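Need a sequence for this fold. Nothing fancy.
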């Protein structure tokens, strides 16, 4: 009984030593919840190793900062490390990193303001004095963690994330960046106010602060949602236009085949009656070439190429090649919404490789490009293979990756395409581009390991 009384007394009076002990497990909990919320908000694909590394660094630095660095300097240093870890450990873009960094902090600042009001109303004490007493510090922390986890659960359950930022145009990205900068200023001001002036502020000022935070947060979400919706609508419209063009070509080719099928059959029968097998083979090969175009148009469908960004790039390149008289064989056997790399970077690689293939093939007498997108489960990798006929047989497959290299400088070619792909490979340890050539085809095999 006496032990329980001693514990209760320690918990209900100001006790700096006990607060330091309590802060250790709470630092781990906060680091973990912040990590979950950051990942959920921007829908970052990370490995367990990346999660552990992020969690370990943030937790250890948080504990060290809490013991040896004065407030609020330790808070600002912790935020700087948090942002750096998101960029370098999760390896995401600057814009996504900013959002993954800012929004969890903004949400947490909002919750802390609510908890401050609760303390002043229910317990009759200001937050600054309340958190110096262990029992009140524990209650405030647990309430804050519960609210943080609730935000993570809602975001994860309803899919409330910003996973399509790469489709935003430059104007909308600028607007979003300004919003994030304003959010950082607001958060910094809120932290400073809570640390130094919360005990001197009337309750109605604190309530106004909550209203301002809620309004800003809601407005930010609405602006981001509207921008994404407009960009998505524009993307879908472009996709529909391309698909309508594909359907029109498919319809015309199908009608032509139906109309000519009897003539085609009679032509084959003529070779068969004369037992002209060589002539039949040549006739059949010509027929298959025309049939392949119909098969390509069937493959070039949003249901087969099921990622809108990749579909738009592939459809544009296909129709460009077709207008130049290039025969394309297209095969796709992969769920393109489940790539083990960023869609934005894949579309850049695809566009560059297709442009190079079209340029090289357009100068050949026999114009052929074969495009295959498939999975190799034996080697745990996804493949993009592009083969094209080419005329410059002595091309150096090592030199082509150097910055500024181009065999077409007289046409204004900058020679940056393959060099840009090399930069993408350097940023990702699961990507490889394997270049080969033979007498007939120049082959680019892009490999995504998982």
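Here you go.
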């Amino acid at each position: 009984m006496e032990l329980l009384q001693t514990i209760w007394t320690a918990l209900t009076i100001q006790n700096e030593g006990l607060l330091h002990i309590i802060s250790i497990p709470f630092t781990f909990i906060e680091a973990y919840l912040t990590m979950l919320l950051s990942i959920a908000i921007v829908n970052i694909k990370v490995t367990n190793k990346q999660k552990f590394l992020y969690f370990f660094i943030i937790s250890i630095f948080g504990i060290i900062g809490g013991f040896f660095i004065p407030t609020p300097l330790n808070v600002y240093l912790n935020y700087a490390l948090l942002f750096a870890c998101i960029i370098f450990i999760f390896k995401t873009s600057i814009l996504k990193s900013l959002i993954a960094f800012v929004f969890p902090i903004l949400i947490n600042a909002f919750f802390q303001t609510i908890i401050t009001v609760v303390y002043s109303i229910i317990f009759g004490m200001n937050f600054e004095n309340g958190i110096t007493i262990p029992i009140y510090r524990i209650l405030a922390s647990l309430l804050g963690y519960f609210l943080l986890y609730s935000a993570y659960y809602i975001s994860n359950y309803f899919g409330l994330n910003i996973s399509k930022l790469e489709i935003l145009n430059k104007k909308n990205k600028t607007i979003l960046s300004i919003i994030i900068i304003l959010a950082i200023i607001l958060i910094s001001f809120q932290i400073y106010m809570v640390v130094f002036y919360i005990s001197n502020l009337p309750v109605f000022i604190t309530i106004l602060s909550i209203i301002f935070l809620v309004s800003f947060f809601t407005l930010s979400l609405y602006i981001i949602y509207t921008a994404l919706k407009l960009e998505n609508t524009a993307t879908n419209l472009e996709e529909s236009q391309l698909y309508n063009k594909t359907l029109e070509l498919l319809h015309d080719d199908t009608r032509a085949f139906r109309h000519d099928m009897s003539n085609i059959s009679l032509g084959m029968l003529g070779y068969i009656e004369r037992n002209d097998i060589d002539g039949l083979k040549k006739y059949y090969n010509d027929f298959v070439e025309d049939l392949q175009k119909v098969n390509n148009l069937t493959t070039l469908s949003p249901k087969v190429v099921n990622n809108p960004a990749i579909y738009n790039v592939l459809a544009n390149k296909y129709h460009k090649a077709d207008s130049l008289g290039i025969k394309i064989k297209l095969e796709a056997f992969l769920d393109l919404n489940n790539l083990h790399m960023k869609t934005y970077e894949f579309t850049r690689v695809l566009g560059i490789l297709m442009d190079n293939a079209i340029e090289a093939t357009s100068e050949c007498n026999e114009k052929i490009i074969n495009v295959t997108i498939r999975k190799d489960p034996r080697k745990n990798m996804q493949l993009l293979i592009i083969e094209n006929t080419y005329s410059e047989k002595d091309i150096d497959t090592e030199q082509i990756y150097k910055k500024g290299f181009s065999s077409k400088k007289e046409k204004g070619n900058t020679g940056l395409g393959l060099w840009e792909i090399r930069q993408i490979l350097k940023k990702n340890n699961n990507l490889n581009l394997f270049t080969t050539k033979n007498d007939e085809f120049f082959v680019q095999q892009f490999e995504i390991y998982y």
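For context: The longest strand covers residues 368-376.
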